[in-house]
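Human: I hope this is not a bother. Would you mind checking the protein record under this note? Thank you for your patience.
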Amino acid sequence: MSLATAPTQPGARFDDAELAELATVLGREYAIERELGRGGMGVVLLARDLRLERPVAVKVLPRERAADAAHRQRFLREAKTAAKLSHPNIVPVLHADEAGAFAYFTMPYVDGETLTERVQSRGRPTAREVVRLLREVAWALAYAHARGVVHRDIKPENILVERATGRVLVTDFGIAFEAQASRLTGDDHMVGTATYMSPEQILGRELDGRSDLYSLGVVGYWLLAGQHPFEGAATPTVLVKHATEPAPPLRTLAPEVPASLAAAIDRCLTKEPDARWSSGEALAEALAAVEGELAGVPAHTGGDLLLDERQVSAVLQRAAQLQADAARRVEERSRAETSPTPTTASALRVSEVQAAAAEAGIAPEFVAMAAAELPAGGALAVPKVSAAAEGRWAVRLFGKDVRQLVASRVFRAPAKAVLDALAHVWQASPYNLRLLDAVGPHPLDGGAVTFRVPKFTFNADGSAVGGFPYYMYVLGIRQVRLTMQRRGRDAIECTVTAELHETIAFGRKLFYGWVGSMTTIAGVAAGVAMFLTLLPIFAALGTLGVAVTTYTGLYKLNHVAYAYYFRQAQESLETLLADVDANLRTQALFGSMPAPQAALSRGED
């Protein structure tokens, strides 16, 4: 789900008949596709703007609620309030209107996920990620508060993270109000979400922007500690605690959180508004200082790497090759089926290169794949010959154009479960893969992860143990790359790739030596024949024929051998993914991760 709202509310019913009626009344402007989410104030649908040919999210007040004048007024006030806000971190309103028995407004479709979905799919974020997320929300709130708009329902479900860019957006100003306007809500009951409500909101006091900062502090607390400052089985219990009890200091539950970050969040959670940050801007600046402080800490391997101009050029070139290779594989399959700190001012992050490549039509995952081929130290791993030349050499060495071994599989499971299973299976026996690096954004957002292939092991008698490491090592493959793509809410496609550039480069060197040695052998043989026979010309031709025949036979044998190892290595890659699938099914059946196998004694990684 991309532009999401709160969980389903009893009053937000939207049956098939209503959907059909709405599709009819909006049919000249929008084509309704499917439901994205729903909340107490309406249902959000994915639609296509027929005039501008772009996807939009349409928020609709169901007919039964639209019939109530107060509800209709409040819903349209939401659209008018949000329409006044134009900020990079706020989902804007494009159009609002009434159609038949419905009231609705449209927003840009955000291809992303809520913070709740993000944590569910990939686990709790790092402190540095939390700082960035909170800072962008704080700037959005600072902008809204400066215009007299208080959100009143800041929670993870109303904070979106755009998948392609990582940009954070605040949405659903459904219960927002303008501080200088009437406090009309259309009803007399409390509005907001209990877990994230400020004390003054619970007590029905006058609100200003500092109430939203309290709620944002609860969001940060939950992201870092894995739980809320106040929890209870019943909503009244949680409300009473928010209104009367001091929040436990964040570091009492999460001592690993940097002190400066914990202090910033603890200050958001003070009971008296005057003791909190004075504005969203003040909080954002404090978080910027924390971010600068954390930047001095060595980033975890696999951060958004910095590339110099030479590397950017090479990565873009290689990304284009990878995309072309992928297109070629799809075409062949279709045919078969039908028959750190920057060191220079010009350094760019991988995510920035991905954004630039998108303008040239290169998908972000191929940029991440290309960047993943840059080993530690930044030495370029782009092939030393052109793509066309490399293809010719592949045919000469292997008998066909093979430059990658690729296996893909779709897992019908939540992303977090797939990631856990991958880490568990791949790093255990018999594979014993070791994490090398993660390049670009999270794998679910177009990043890539590389694993080192260990050397194959030996039996007691000195013979090699076959299987995955053996075939990879024979082909000169020392690492494999993992990329991921969503294929639905709970479906993840994983692709594992083994590059053959080093195999081709090594084969070229052997080929030159092979040709030279065969020429020498042929020359010596021809000289001996000329010396021993009376027909030197025919003898020479005969010897040359023997040499050529021998050479051709060895050449074909080389192709057969490579075909065998490619087939075995391909099956090994597919087994890698099949074992992950088996692990997921075991978890689904027994509810726990299977115990890892004892690792074999192995050679040097």
